[in-house]
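Quick check before the chapter quiz. The format below is the same one you will see on the exam, so make sure you can read both the input and the output lines.
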Amino acid sequence: MSVPARALSPTPARFAPRSAAARSARPRARLRFLIYCVSFLGWLGLFYYGFPYYRLGLAERLHAPAHAALRPSGAMGLLYGYVGTAFLLLLLLYSVRKRVPFLRGFGSLGRWLNAHIFCGIAGPAMITLHSGFRVTGVIAIGYWSMMCVMASGFVGYYLLRQVGGALSATEADDHALALEMEELDRELTERYGFQASDLQDLRRRAGADRAERMGLLPSLFYLMGQDLVRMAEALGFGSPSGAMRYLGRSEARRVRALTRRRLLLERRHAFLRQTSAMFHYWHAIHKPFTIVLFLMMGVHIGIAIWLGYALPTG
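Here is the expected output.
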């Protein structure tokens, strides 16, 4: 890959000014990261506090000093259950926000999705503390359904990122992706001297030449493998192009961002049919687990109220 002399100038000629949304995206991402870190550390603190109790067998727990507080019907055990149940119920608000036109003015769908993801992690974490890491009997069906909902939620979010918000492989989606790829190709060739062979290499790395021959599961594993390789390269384990050595830091960062975006768009365009189909199959798996979760949760809460365990017992 050759790099023209104009690419070495410290002042980019075709850099578009960042939009207000782009400028605010990074602080929001940092805030989300901070919330997750604080929440995780808080959960670890609760786990550390109860670990001497959680590591005991069922018979030994009856004689442990912390049994009165940490058992599911104890003061702290019930508090964990209340908080976990609240998070699980808040999960439903995302579906309500998507389906009720009146709520479209209450925040962007992306922010609701971020809150949905957080509740989908925090809820099972608190319910696990409520259970004392011991789940037996019929309630185990609801607990493991909850864990399947959480695990499938991660898969669904990954697929949503792959399709880029477009949930069907329509001609409009293809056209929009093609236009953005053309714009990126123009900047890479005119400003940074990319040749046709370089663009073809990006297409090859995206797997575009083999996408049509792949089924759904092979496509999913291929995309995940590519993302792992990309993460390794971002951490410095990849070998940079020789031409990158002649660019300034800001210019090199710009080239990496453009090529990464171009690679992802090519991959999204090539695998749009597979990822859209996988997303529809995911709905068929995710929803039944969700229904079982809330049915069993309702049965569990109803029995607890009926037997008098809904309030702390001595």
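If your answer matched, good. The chain has two domains: 24-163+287-307, 168-276.
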